[in-house]
Structure formats: structure tokens, C-alpha cells
């Protein structure tokens, strides 16, 4: 294109973000700065979303500074995007400052704050804001309750989580729990050592259990030394993904720990027959992972900071 304006660049950034090409989205955002084109609010929302998903705090802070320098108001969409970015990048205290400076907020704004506090393991504060949200008449949605139950899980607040889930079951929030809410409860109970109750949640819920659920139960059973339930959980993972070599390695290691060497050999033969490798780099539980700094991938531009 002989000419590119803010719309052209924003469409390119948004397209890469939607396609999951976060590095390319942020690279385009940097190139836009060097070309002399000023971003608008839509540009910033898309760039902040890419920063949040890839954990690039440095660029997110630059965007915040740009907004402040230029006197932009933190409207609902832009403010919520900033809170979401800070929460996912581990700086929720900065997100809280943005939240308190906003004159208008919606349920998405509150969700971003509560989720960010839950991720930062500020459990009591996350619950305090949840109760404050209700007092201010903001109706919680499904995402709100996922954030609240995650906070209970991280803080080991088993009884509080049970109470909230009971209210959810009884329809107090206006909707029924979905599979993610059940997953949060399995994680909460597994972490706290209530393994039988966690297994009951999986067996009696109205959904097919997911890999994350069995992984959470496995993590809880391993932490509490329940080898029998650990074996049961790994076998369920193998059934879900029979071509995933890491599950067979887990099962083999578990049998070795139990002294069941005959079963170890069976698992190894099974792997050989299936042509599977010992891929120990594959995670079986969906955990928070450190985000890779996209600036490492933008070496040609490092000498020209925006």
C-alpha cells in the first residue's frame, strides 16, 4: 500500500491478534510507531490485548504512559483492557489504580479486577471486591464466578468455595454452573486434600470430565500421597489422549514409585508399539506459565525503543 493510516495498521494488529500471532501483532504495533502514525483507542485496545495474552508488561506500561501523557479518558473498554493486561502480567496493583480512576465500569471491568487479584493470590481482596460488586448492584456473570472460585482455590478457602458453589447450583446468580465452575471446584478440593469429594464432583457432574480436571485431581492426589488415585487419574488422561507420550511416562514413573516393575515394562512396550517418545516437556495440568517477552523476538528494533 502506498499509504497506510491508523485504520490500516489497526486492522493488521487486530488480525494478527485474532489469529493468535501475538508477536506479529506487537511487531506491527511497533512498526506503526516508527512510521509516524498515531494510534487511536481501538489500536490501543488490540495492542493491550496482545500484551496481556503474551505477558509483555513493558509495552503495556508504555501504552498506559502514552494514554496518560495524551490526556485520554479511561473509558470502559480502554480501562478494562488496561486492568486485564496488568492482571495477566502480574501487576494487578497497577490495574487497581486504573479501576479506581474510572468513572464508569461494567461487569467486564469488575471481572478483570477480580481475576487479576485471584491470579496474584490476593484471595481475600478478590472476595472483598466481589462482595462490593454485588453491593453496588453489578450482576455477576459466569466469568465472575470462575474468578471467585479460582481465588478460593488459590487461598485454600474450601468452605467459602463450597458456599459459593451451592448458591450457584441453587440459581442465586441467575445461571447454572458450567464445566469451568466444576473444574474450579475439583481444583479447590484436590489442592486442599479432599480427594474423594473432588472425585465425586467429576463422577456426578453433568459434563464429560476434561484433561484439566483429571490433571488437577492428579496434582492433588500426588501432593497428598494417594498413589492409587494418582494411577486412576493418569489412566483417565491416557484414555483422553492415547497418543500423548508424556502421560505414559507419568504412568511408568508412578508404577516405578509403587514398585510395580512388571507394569513399568508393560507401559514401555505400549509406548514402543505406538511409536511414542518420552516427551517430558509436555504439561498434563493447565498451570500458569511464565510468559515469554516478545521483545526478545524483536531484536532488530531493540535499539529504537518506542
UniProtKB/TrEMBL annotation:
Keywords annotated in UniProt: Repeat
PPR repeat start-end pairs: 5-39, 106-140
Molecular functions per Gene Ontology: RNA binding
InterPro entries xrefs: E_motif, PPR_At4g14850-like_plant, PPR_rpt, TPR-like_helical_dom_sf
Keyword Repeat (UniProt): yes
GO biological process: RNA modification
Residues forming coiled coils: none
Entry-linked NCBIfam families: PPR
Protein name (record): Pentatricopeptide repeat
Species assigned in the record: Macleaya cordata (Five-seeded plume-poppy)
